[in-house]
TrEMBL record, chain A:
Comment on bound cofactor: Binds 1 Mg(2+) ion per subunit.
Catalytically driven reaction(s): 2 pyruvate + H(+) = (2S)-2-acetolactate + CO2
Cofactor: Mg(2+); thiamine diphosphate
Sequence ranges assigned to domain Thiamine pyrophosphate enzyme TPP-binding in this UniProt record: 396-543
GO cellular component labels: acetolactate synthase complex
Gene3D superfamilies registered for this protein in UniProt: 3.40.50.970, TPP-binding domain
Protein known as: Acetolactate synthase
Pathway membership: Amino-acid biosynthesis; L-isoleucine biosynthesis; L-isoleucine from 2-oxobutanoate: step 1/4; Amino-acid biosynthesis; L-valine biosynthesis; L-valine from pyruvate: step 1/4
Keywords from the UniProt entry: Amino-acid biosynthesis, Branched-chain amino acid biosynthesis, Magnesium, Metal-binding, Thiamine pyrophosphate, Transferase
Species of origin: Sulfitobacter marinus
UniProtKB/TrEMBL annotation, chain B:
Superkingdom of the source species: Bacteria
Single GO cellular component term: cytosol
Presence of the UniProt keyword Endoplasmic reticulum in the record: no
Main EC class the enzyme belongs to: transferase
TM spans (from-to): none
Summary of the function given for this chain in its UniProt record: Catalyzes the conversion of 2 pyruvate molecules into acetolactate in the first common step of the biosynthetic pathway of the branched-amino acids such as leucine, isoleucine, and valine.
Recorded GO MF terms: acetolactate synthase activity; acetolactate synthase regulator activity
Name used for this protein in its record: Acetolactate synthase small subunit
EC number: 2.2.1.6
Database matches in PANTHER family: ACETOLACTATE SYNTHASE SMALL SUBUNIT, ACETOLACTATE SYNTHASE SMALL SUBUNIT 1, CHLOROPLASTIC
InterPro entries with a match to the protein in the record: Acetalactate_synth_ssu, Acetolactate_synth/TF_NikR_C, Acetolactate_synth_ssu_C, ACT-like_dom_sf, ACT_dom, AHAS_ACT, AHAS_small-like_ACT
């Protein structure tokens, strides 16, 4: 059934037909007709953010915690340009978003009209795909296609730029129907390659699963299959920052996160393994370190839905293009049908080696004295929130890495962090998006004081919608991660890495009508955290921590996985000139 | 080196050859990219090359199927085998891209380019230019008492060779279309 309606109404109708319940947005001249339609309906809740970047990160938080696409509505010009950081963030972390931008009327495009920007031009490299819709009749079809593209294959952000006259004009609405798009990325992996991988698993002496965000993106079934495969084979498993929670942190086979600030045992296992099974990860440079020295003795298999991820950075021996869930299902089937074989004797020996690495206890720290160690703050947060229905977002910096190290995730979609782009200012709005999707859950943003200030205006949003998000700020009064690199690479010359003139966070919270808690004494920490948890409303928790703590383990730039810096080492002269050009 | 002695370079059945033998040798490949003829599609392709630092040696584009809304982009690019594989995979990721063909590896193909050369001069040089144009089967599409415009079609190296010969004879302007290419036979 097709119907006549205005473009603005079509937009709202298409969102409803796509099952959208929440839109994060900010109005302006070029989207007023759409806002008029938003006003006249009750199916979709619109969340008024305080900055368009906040809208996109909130939508990311919503998407990462639900698996559904996040939806954003912003105006032309500055509204669209403010969305660019969020779009890039979502592109690098493969987060499905549908972003709608207003545009000046078609007859004014190209005239440098008020609030005109070449939005499709600006966002072409930071979206999976984008459209400028110049005819109202095409709007419905494009909207449905946009949802299809954002969510199929490797997910990502898409943008639809809609001139104001197209919103006003009446056209025919094309309802949602099974996709006719030529864009249909295959889900099933090649059976021959899957069999080859299974055969390699049967004989491997030192196997390791290296998993990533692709497992989360594939959906909860993929995580279940992964768990089954790990338990059945008894192989150790590590994950990237993006994949935390796909395998439970309490699981026996869990090695912890790998990479630049990954655990000693995880990185050593990656370096020394003879079979690496990459499931939905992308050999990012935070993971590989120097590629020439990356896991030199292993046969490498790579399961990825995006063919361009394969052989991009690391040459692999067994490439499998397909959806993680589908491939895992086939892997299990083939492995079972061939008699559930592993080289259990060798694998047991491998575990002995791993246990030796584990015994180094690379995350150990000592909380002594009157200053809170950031690691201690997180260990206490973990202990006191473990029992909650908990979602964690983070900002970017040392606190983010410590959160990844000291918090444990039992399920996917519970951990939302900016991995690929490393966007300071991500965590707070993301926590708002998560809380919108999970109103009764405990949502905590583990933040650094500097990152948090980047989108602190969203306190207004949290207050307006009664979103009891907890802002757990590890306040070291430093751009801690920058400071750490300056200590390691730049002769301890701490150029501009001080957080000067910080606000009084308690007063700041109170100014917004929220609760502020200051904690500086380790003895008060548990009570203060409990106060935060039991308060029904947004809280800013200003946790004053050790200012010059470094985040370890660390694979310094230009080094291999087996060349990690552990806590307590001398930090001077570790990175050579070649390493220091790397980021 | 593979500890499990898995055969390297075996062929995969997927659409992309994912198991190339990587080397550092720079290769030149001609790619045919069939795209939806929609606004911005060329910008997407060019943006991919500039954004990821790939080379474009030649690029041509035109609609080839009006009712089907298809355009054909022919790109000549160069890079190591790994980079060429990446380029193809990245092109394949662009939503309005329907097909990516590597004509250099998919079997024999023919490549043609059209060029126009303006050669100015009088006397012996003018006569020599005309004589060489005849040998190269170039057509005269414009002439004055002091100049010719030649039109020549052929493989790019033939056009290069013609340009080299015309240079000392008074070559003043060149316009080249870039390469169009098709696989031979069926
Ligand atoms: C938008 C943005 N600008 C700059 C950076 C570079 N950067 C990475 S971490 C960091 C410091 C973060 O400080 P803070 O939020 O206090 O966290 P800490 O490292 O102290 O825990 C900076 C400036 C970034 N990641 N994002
Ligand atoms: Mg800080």
């Amino acid at each position: 059934m097709t119907r006549k309606m205005t473009g603005a109404k079509m937009i709202v109708q298409a969102l409803i037909d796509q099952g959208v319940d929440t839109v994060f947005g900010y109005p302006g001249g070029a989207v007023l007709p759409i806002y008029d339609e938003v006003f006249q309906q009750n199916s979709i809740k619109h969340i008024l953010v305080r900055h368009e970047q906040g809208a996109v990160h909130a939508a990311e938080g919503y998407a990462r915690s639900t698996g559904k696409p996040g939806v954003v509505l912003v105006t032309s010009g500055p509204g669209a340009t403010n969305a660019v950081t969020g779009l890039t963030d979502a592109l690098l972390d493969s987060i499905p978003l549908v972003v709608l931008t207003g545009q000046v009327p078609t007859f004014m495009i190209g005239s440098d009209a008020f609030q005109e920007a070449d939005t499709v031009g600006i966002t072409r490299p930071c979206t999976k795909h984008n459209w400028l819709v110049k005819e109202t009749d095409k709007l419905g079809g494009v909207l449905h296609e946009a949802f299809h593209v954002a969510t199929s294959g490797r997910p990502g952000p898409v943008l639809i730029d809609i001139p104001k006259d197209v919103q006003f004009a009446t056209g025919t609405y094309e309802p949602k129907k099974p996709s006719v798009s030529h864009y249909q990325p295959p889900l099933k992996g090649d059976m021959e390659s899957i069999t080859e991988l299974v055969a390699a698993m049967e004989t491997a002496k030192r196997p390791v699963f290296y998993t990533g965000g692709g497992v989360v993106n594939s959906g909860p079934a993929a995580s279940q299959l992964l768990r089954e495969l790990v338990e059945a084979t008894g192989f150790p498993i590590t994950s990237t920052l993006m994949g935390l929670g796909c395998y439970p942190a309490s699981g026996e086979k869990w090695l912890g996160m790998l990479g630049m600030h990954g655990l000693y045992e995880a990185n050593m296992a990656m370096h020394d393994c003879d079979l690496m099974i990459n499931i939905g990860a992308r050999f990012d440079d935070r993971i590989t370190g120097v590629v020439d020295m990356f896991s030199p003795k292993s046969t490498k298999a790579h399961i990825d839905i995006d063919p361009s991820s394969i052989n991009k950075i690391i040459r692999v021996d067994i490439p499998i293009v397909g959806d993680v869930g589908h491939v895992l299902e086939d892997m299990l089937k083939v492995w079972k049908s061939r008699g559930r074989k592993t080289n259990s004797e060798a694998v047991a020996k491998w575990w002995k080696q791993i246990d030796e690495w584990r015994s180094i206890d690379c995350l150990k720290f000592e909380q002594n004295g009157k200053v809170i160690k950031p690691q201690h703050a997180l260990a206490r947060l973990e202990a006191l929130t473990k029992k909650y229905d908990r979602y964690i977002t983070t900002e970017v910096g040392q606190h983010q890495m410590w959160a990844a190290q000291y918090l444990g995730f039992e399920d996917p979609n519970r951990w939302m962090t900016s991995g690929g782009l490393g966007t300071m200012g991500y965590g707070f709005p993301a926590s708002i998006g998560v809380q919108m999707a999970h109103p009764d859950a405990l949502v905590i943003n583990v933040a650094g004081e500097a990152s948090w200030l980047m989108n602190m205006q969203e306190m207004g949003t949290a207050m307006q919608y009664n979103l009891p998000v907890k802002q757990f700020i590890l306040n070291n009064e430093r751009l801690g991660m920058v400071r750490q690199w300056q200590e390691l690479l730049h002769g301890e010359r701490y150029s501009q890495s001080w957080s000067e003139s910080l606000p009084d966070f308690v007063k700041l919270a109170e100014a917004f009508g929220a609760k502020g808690i200051l904690c500086s004494d380790p003895d008060d920490l548990d009570d203060a955290i409990m106060e935060m948890l039991t308060y029904d409303g947004p809280v800013i928790f200003d946790c004053l921590v050790e200012k010059h703590e470094n985040c370890f383990p660390m694979i310094p730039s230009g080094k291999a996985h087996n060349d990690m810096m552990l806590a307590g080492v001398d930090t001077q002269g570790v990175i050579d000139a070649k390493g220091s050009v790397l980021v | 080196m593979s500890a499990l002695k898995i055969k390297k370079g075996s062929t995969s059945h997927s659409a992309y050859n994912l198991r190339p033998n990587f080397s550092d040798v720079i290769e030149r490949h001609t790619l045919a990219v069939l795209v939806e003829n929609e606004p911005g599609v060329l910008a997407r392709v060019i943006g991919l090359f500039s954004g990821r630092g790939y080379n474009i040696d030649s690029l041509t584009v035109a609609e080839v199927d009006h009712t089907g809304h298809r355009s054909r982009i022919t790109i000549v690019t160069s890079g190591t085998p790994q980079v060429i594989e990446q380029i193809k995979a990245q092109l394949g990721r662009i939503v309005p891209v329907h097909e990516v063909h590597d004509l250099t590896v998919e079997g024999p193909s023919v490549e043609r380019e059209l060029a126009m050369f303006k050669v100015s001069g009088t006397g012996d040089k003018r006569v020599e230019a005309l004589r060489l144009a005849d040998i190269f089967r170039a057509n005269v599409v414009d002439s004055t008492l002091e100049s010719f415009v030649f039109e020549i079609t052929g493989a790019p190296d033939k056009i290069d060779a013609f340009a080299d010969l015309m240079r000392p004879l008074g070559l003043t302007d060149v316009a080249r279309t870039g390469v169009a290419a098709l696989p031979r036979g069926d």
